[in-house]
Design a protein that fits this description.
The complex is a heterodimer of chains A (501) and B (288). By secondary structure, chain A is mainly β. Chain A has helices spanning 155-161, 425-436, 471-478; strands at 16-22, 27-30, 36-40, 45-50, 55-61, 67-72, 78-83, 87-92, 101-107, 112-117, 126-131, 136-140, 147-151, 171-176, 182-187, 191-196, 201-207, 214-219, 225-230, 235-239, 266-267, 300-303, 308-310, 319-324, 330-335, 342-347, 353-359, 365-370, 377-381, 385-390. Chain B is 0% helix and 55% strand. Classes of the chains: A mainly beta (501), B mainly beta (288).
Chain lengths: 501, 288
């Protein structure tokens, strides 16, 4: 039905700024429905913007220092903000008030560099956190399995990852893959570590020669490709292995070769333990995996050869972030140019060919995020404005005249043999009547939105992710999901005066 | 004097009516008891619309303004001003953060509900706009006018995507999307209702039998039990057609004047209808 919209959608990347949001932000993320943008500010506040009205609709004040990352839950109901003030706050946008209720505050003992929801758990109760100390935690807030588990290498592994100074390399990036089965961790030594989310066991280790410390990751939606951004100013794309060794599904399995490092998950040891404020981070109560010492698992170790490398050949700028287009065919990279706002776009399907560089003016760029459905990008500038890029559709004047069709070139009209023949009126009426006998379906749509508009209640799409692989991992993530399969609605709050925001 | 419009609340508990007497009345949809009367417009009211959560009601009036009413407090929360002539029709989008309105100034306007500001003015038609509404996901807007044209717009950009027009363009009284938005139902003042396929721009069904030559009568889909098309008529009757066969399957008689407005209950087999001048009544018709 929405083929009516933009039938000339041949250009799949945005080309111009549609509007900007004066958000005072340093980071901006579209929600999964593509209707809202969440902006995190350096002063610790976060705002939610409605793209229909281009207005800020929620003001989330909870942090006292700059926000380092924001993430939306799968159904857009919950918003996570992580901050340098050592806290992660999860907000419930279904609340009827502004500011909305905080559902959870998770406190750590170091600045939080990034935090994200598990992509599958609909209730947004599994959170991955990277701290400024180079530690990564998986926080499970579900009732049955409350735990704060540190994702780390055990001693045997460390030997291989130590850098020249003998220190263990710090974790600098942590992100779930799109299925949520794995956690991908980048280290300061230029290694990509893959942990199994459920058991927190290391299942893969990829060295990326020459990359240096990892700065950020992004995945295509199908989870098959990974791009990494590292200090060597090169963005690398990798095809990920089709599968990683599956960790033991139950309690015991043994591999004879000790080289295959055992890597049990562990709780944070006491000196690493954070103040457990409202989280049930109880040491020694690791819900899923107490028996770490006996589980052994294979680790896929290899050097990943990038399928593509992207860099700026002229000015050799570094990159802040990069973001795949929804279909994974294009990649946008936000250049860390101190004097320009530039987004580079490469065409993955055409061998990584450089397509264009969007120029957003002189204000340096901080962050880039591609819209989840459309050819639109949100880029955040240093002055705090969030630029929304789109592909402008030319006005089609022909649409104003019914029955007319616009053609680019003159077409010689060929008259049908019987076109102007006089036809018997009754036959004509009969034919029309017969045509009208065709069955029409006014209820069922061909798109996945329910026709009653309830698809607009955020939160119906439930199917997700590639279905292959051990379902156990999905079941694990799905446990305790009941509460928020229920649709919810972002209440429209009336604003009394314009200065409210 | 006439009762211009009737709308059931989204949960079906209330029926709102508006009339040329500048008042909005809220009725219990099952017992017919009056719940509340809202006054505030300086001139007669042409159309009303419920927000999707039932918390707000918007009304369009000949005083060129739109008033947003809170259904918690039964009071005015905002007034939208901008139309330069009578506001004739309006509707919320499904998220109810936008409102679309049309009027005698021949424009279609899109409003930011929370701020009460006009976001966009579409120079839509060359005659008074008689009906305007969003589709089921809020991406499209359909409008129709006395110029006989039905236009479909991209709600986000305000671009005209399509114009549906019949050979001899009679004044178009009413238009709305089918529940799945693949079709629009349009009433024209040649006593005909047509169902158009939005994609192919073809008329796929024609419904006739009623009389509509003068007024902007409303028509609606009934989907709670079978699929029907329902419309008032200028001969004081209400017509019910089978959606597929296009046969008139029932005519409801009882009103004594033109049946201007009809509404179908969201989940029960109830039709509400209202008439004008000689018969200022609202009737509820129940399928038993």
């Amino acid at each position: 039905m929405n083929d009516l919209l933009n039938p000339f959608a041949v250009v799949t990347y945005p080309t111009a700024v549609q509007f900007s949001l004066y958000a005072g932000a340093s980071i901006a993320r579209f929600d999964p429905s593509g209707r809202y943008v969440a902006a995190g500010r350096p002063d610790g506040a976060a705002t939610v913007w409605d793209l229909d009205t281009r207005a800020s609709i929620r003001w989330l004040e909870g942090h006292v220092k700059g926000i380092t990352s924001v993430d939306w839950s799968r159904n857009s109901r919950f918003l996570l903000t992580a901050s340098k003030d050592w806290n992660v706050i999860i907000w419930d946008l279904a609340a009827l008030a502004d500011p909305p209720d905080r559902r959870t505050t998770i406190r750590f003992d170091a600045p939080v560099l990034s935090a994200s929801f598990h992509p599958r758990n609909r209730q947004a109760r599994i959170v991955l956190v990277l701290l400024g100390t180079g530690e990564v935690y998986i926080i499970d807030l579900r009732r049955h399995a409350r735990a704060r588990s540190r994702v780390e290498l055990v001693e045997d592994d460390n030997a291989e990852v130590e850098d020249a100074t003998g220190r263990q390399s710090a974790m600098t990036v942590a992100q779930f893959d799109p299925s949520g089965k794995y956690v991908f961790v980048g280290t300061s030594a230029g290694t990509v570590l893959v942990f199994h989310t459920r058991t927190k066991i290391l299942v893969g280790r990829h060295r990326v020669p020459g990359a240096g410390a990892m700065k950020s990751f992004d995945f295509t939606r199908n989870g098959r490709s990974l791009v990494t951004n590292s200090v060597d100013r090169t963005i690398r794309q990798f095809m990920l292995p089709a599968s990683y060794p599956s960790p033991p599904s139950s309690t015991f399995s043994q591999t004879p070769n000790p080289q295959r490092s055992p890597s049990p998950s562990r709780n944070a040891s006491p000196q690493q333990t954070d103040g457990h404020d409202q989280t049930p981070a109880v040491n020694g109560v690791n819900g899923m995996h107490e028996d770490g010492d006996v589980t052994m698992s294979q680790v896929l170790e290899n050097e990943l050869e990038p399928t593509q490398r992207f860099n700026d050949p002229i000015s050799r700028t570094a990159w802040h972030t990069m973001s795949y287009s929804p279909d994974g065919q294009l990649l946008a990279g936000g250049a860390a140019d101190p004097a320009a706002h530039k987004i580079f776009i490469w065409d993955i399907s055409h061998d990584g060919q450089f397509v264009t560089a969007l120029d957003g003016g002189r204000e340096p760029l901080l962050d880039v995020h591609w819209h989840p459905m459309k050819s639109a990008i949100a880029s955040t500038a240093k002055d705090g404005n969030v630029l929304i890029w789109h592909y402008p559709t030319p006005e089609r004047w022909g649409a104003f005249a019914g029955g007319f069709e616009e053609v680019d070139e003159n077409v010689v009209y060929e008259e049908r043999e019987d076109e102007f023949d006089l036809e018997d009126e009754s036959a004509l009426a009969l034919r029309k009547k017969e045509l009208e006998d065709d069955h029409v379906d006014i209820i069922n749509g061909d798109d996945n939105l329910p026709a009653d508009g309830s698809g607009l209640l955020n939160g119906s799409p439930c199917a997700m992710g590639p279905g292959e692989g051990p379902e156990e991992d999905y079941d694990w993530a799905d446990v305790d999901n009941e509460e928020d399969c229920t649709p919810w609605r972002m209440k429209v709050l009336m604003v009394d005066d314009d200065d409210a925001y | 004097m006439s009762i211009s419009t009737l709308k059931f609340s989204p949960n079906g508990s209330m029926l709102a009516s508006a009339a040329a007497d500048k008042l909005i009345k809220l009725w219990d949809a099952y017992t017919g008891e009056i719940i509340q009367t809202l006054s505030g417009h300086a001139e007669g009211i042409n159309d009303i619309a419920w927000s999707a959560d039932g918390e707000y009601l918007a009304s369009a009036s000949d005083d060129k303004s739109i008033i947003l009413w809170s259904m918690d407090l039964f009071e005015r929360v905002n007034t939208l001003e901008g139309h330069t002539n009578f506001v004739f029709c309006l509707n919320y989008n499904p998220r109810s953060n936008l409102l679309v309105s049309g009027g005698y100034d021949e424009t279609v306007r899109i409003w930011d509900v929370a701020r009460g500001k006009s976001l966009r003015v579409l120079p839509a038609h060359s005659d008074p706009v008689t009906a305007v509404s969003f589709n089921h996901d809020g991406t499209l807007i359909v409008s129709c006018a006395m110029d006989g044209l039905i236009r479909i717009w991209d709600a986000e950009t305000g671009q005209c995507l399509k114009t549906l027009v019949d050979d001899d363009n009679p004044i178009c009284s009413h238009v709305k999307f089918a529940p799945n938005s693949r079709f629009v139902l349009a009433g024209t003042q040649d006593s005909t209702l047509r169902l158009w396929n939005c994609q192919s721009s073809r008329c796929v069904k024609t419904y006739t039998g009623h009389s509509n030559r003068t007024y902007c009568l409303t028509a609606c889909f009934s989907v709670t039990k079978g699929h029907y098309i329902i419309s008032g008529s200028e001969d004081a009757k209400i017509f019910i057609w089978d959606l597929q066969t296009r046969d008139v399957i029932q005519v409801l008689e009882g009103h004594r004047d033109v049946v201007l407005a009809v509404a179908t209950h969201p989940n029960q087999n109830i039709i509400a209808s209202s008439s004008m001048e000689k018969d200022l009544t609202i009737r509820l018709w129940v399928d038993e």
